[in-house]
Fold:
Amino acid sequence: MKYVSEFRDPVLARNLARQIAAEADPARQYAFMEFCGGHTHAIFRYGVHDLMPKNLRFVHGPGCPVCVLPVRRLDDAIEVAEKHGAILCAYGDMMRVPGTGRRSLLSARAAGADIRMVYSPLDALALARENPQAQVVFLGIGFETTAPATAMAILQAQAEGLANFSVLCNHVLTPPAIRHVLEAPGIDPEQAVRLDGFLGPSHVSTVIGAHAYAPLVARYGKPVVIAGFEPLDVMQAVLMLIRQVNDGRAQVENQYTRVVTDTGNQKAQGVMAQVFTLRPAFEWRGLGSVPDSAFAIAPEYAAFDAEQRFPISDKASRETKSCECPAILRGVKEPKDCKLFGRACTPETPMGACMVSSEGACAAWYTYRRAEAMGTPAPALEPAQ
Amino acid sequence: MCLAIPARITALHDGAMATVNAGGVTRDVSVALLEAVAVGDYVLLHVGYALHLISEEEARETLRMMAQTGLLQDELAEMAGTSGGQGA
Structure:
């Protein structure tokens, strides 16, 4: 229990660990997917996996927005800046992600493209106001946490008549990705990852609300427990999942009631519904083509759609060779199964997106469990009390 | 970028904008996606937009946990290090 002393309430942590051990049925194997990369990080940082019984494992999910963006869309963004001379605005997490031929936004900028790191689409709007002669393109990525901000920026641009602003829209949705992980289309059932339930994301759920998972749970019979970010939240949510599995129940439960409501932020849902339309399918790194899983800009706002504004060419985009990001994002492989991990691929020289983003599974393994992942024994843990 | 940062509203402005303080970083953000906010309220901030009101205790605990995991430093660096027109 090497990190328990850093928990907000170490006594509660030990009690929860004991409770989990007592209630986990030794005759079962429990596999729970934490969808969100923030949860992956918390689990590793606090050693939550070390507090779990041997027959319980966490499977890392695809909830890292930078990681799931396919190389092709990144190549498109670089093309918009390089070939069409636009000022391309991107979140900091995107800057070092390698595209085809290991070209990144950062290397394109070094080669002369005008690429700016922004914290918010508000920054991109400000750039559009200050540079009326230039085309300013915002690279919109992320789940339901960032999509409302992109939608608001488009509405603001329309209200101000900012004709030089547009968005390259790559926003993706959480429930369709969970559905896809469960259906595992085209994957041999022997190879598919077996899951008993999901830790639902904290911040995505503040936007979409707990009810958003109800159709999934009803259809696939796997429990979802929305969990806060604290390690104690994660442990509490794990206990709730174990109880559902043991009872043969499958329900949406909300451990994070401090923040998440059943209905979410309806204003944010409203602007997303107004500005976006569902793409029939969208390519995700790792998951492949996922139906109804991403937003495009609705026809009424086509004037702000970079895909309409710029002639983006067809290109043969390629993942970095040997990079196991795709299988890791499906939960089928772990970073330690990748031969690049920790050798050719490190946070300083990332070969794949999962090593770039702090929410990526490879970055989390590299930071906290590198020795174990690379085959050297992990340092001894404090004896459990 | 995907994770929200807890922040305290220190001033309200026209156009549903507000100044917030998040872990010592000050920045103007939009509060257009909240029903009603007041100076002193704590919010969850997503890429420049406040999306949820939270309690002071929740804000403090989340900031503490994000700081311990190193996630806070990344988010705050982005928030502080970029502003419209200056790039990175």
Notes: Residues 46 and 71 of chain B are 14 Å apart (CA to CA). The domain at 5-80 of chain B is CATH 2.30.30.140 (SH3 type barrels.). Chain B touches chain A through 42 residues (CB under 8 Å).
